[in-house]
Amino acid sequence: MQQTSTPQAVALAHERGKVGLPTPDKIPVTLTVNGVATQLEVPPWTTLLDALRDHLDLTGTKKGCDHGQCGACTVLVDGRRINSCMTLAVMQDGGRVTTIEGLATDGALHPLQQAFIDHDAFQCGYCTPGQICSAAGLIAEGKAKTADEIRELMSGNICRCGAYPNIVAAIQQAMGQS
Amino acid sequence: MINFQYARAHDVADAVRLMAADPAAKFIAGGTNLIDLMKEDVERPSRLIDISRLPLKTVEQTPGGGVRIGAVVPNSDLAYHPLIAQRYPMPAAAIIAGASAQLRNMASTGGNLIQRTRCYYFCDIATPCNKRAPGSGCSAIKGMNRTHAILGASEACIATHPSDMCVALAALDAKVHVTGPSGERTIAFADFHRLPEDTPQRDTNLQPNEIVTAVELPPQGFAANYTYLKLRDRLSYAFALVSIAAALELDGRTIKEARLALGGVAHKPWRNTAAEATLRGQTADPAAFIHAADVLLRDAKGYEHNSFKIELARRGIVRALTQAAQGTPQSQSNKKVV
Known about the structure:
The complex is a heterodimer. In chain A, about 35% of the residues lie in helices and about 15% in strands. Chain A is an alpha+beta fold. In chain B, strands 4-5-8-6-7 form a five-stranded antiparallel beta sheet. A four-stranded antiparallel beta sheet of chain B has the order 9-10-11-12, with helices on both faces. A three-stranded parallel beta sheet of chain B has the order 1-3-2, covered by helices on one side.
């Protein structure tokens, strides 16, 4: 994650080594992840995204830009969609996290998962977990009724394959069922 | 990202105490700007003081007929809160015009005020920037400055304030409530953000040991005649090149009261009371709107790549005032500008 390509960044890395910045203790964090109570001990700078992927091996949630600009890391916390790269695991202590791995129930696909298949709403698939979690949040919010409103309220999820028309169609199908 | 300590504040006094004990600490609420800047090594706090659980999460009417918004109310909750959506649709529209649904679910009201500029050079530690490293120079003045300021800039800094919500709050004449070691104080919205002058490292007049606790809206919400018109390179999820918050109080076709503030054009939300004054008592027609735009933009100055913003702002102001006068505010989902 560290960029050390510029002279300033190299100097910064060097300075850190010299100063010997204190390493804080790991902090205990309790999350309910996809319905399972989970205990973690993470340094404070661990993002929720890294906690999910690197500590809990839930790699369905994707790291795209890691700067809150692409939406690939979207998960639901206490039912609200957020960018998991832009929050710290310790800040979500006590939260209920739902990732793409937690949407299916009893082996049956979530209506959004089925709708994305039905409408071929992806090509490479990298943005898809974030798209589906975001769409689940969108449906729960209940603010989008028209295609324009779906497009606007899904604009935080970028699809570089350009599957947008099919994504909107898939969400409309799932909305019709919910 | 730098290694740092973490502490959770339990009440406002606790937050202020924790900050006083560690001047290199930063408050964190939504984190949507701060964590991003920490990943870029632009911000390097010794400690994060988590204020996201403070009891500042309510939106309530004040005895004076206004509304008080707690500092950690998420942007999305604020925009959709019935009191705001019905009585203050201009800030509601401005919030929805900004960022994405996910970010609005995280970002806080107070954090929206104190977010940093998105100037490319500020965000890149490999380049000089007077805001990030005072005295190192401004890379934008002779660099890529397409998104930069046309009003109120200085030789030291031509960055813009990125917020949409703040543009509407400036137009409404909101107040900012803050608490520090010596107690509480209230800052008029116009006095909250600063112009760059020769100290661009200071975005606001908030003291480093103070915390924003609430934003207060005055009683008048201009719910009948308002708009928030945001002009940008793509139709959603992009910062404003120019945005306009316009609100009118009409008596027939005569303007009794006018509010006009711009985003994307200056180091602070740019409210211009002289332009507003030209509108009072006038008939709400294109001639009056054009005159107001000319007054507001009288001292506008473009740089190599952003001079287009001056004409964009002029036309945007006229369009926004027209939308406000007609009671047809800009839709934030159907982006066709009418």
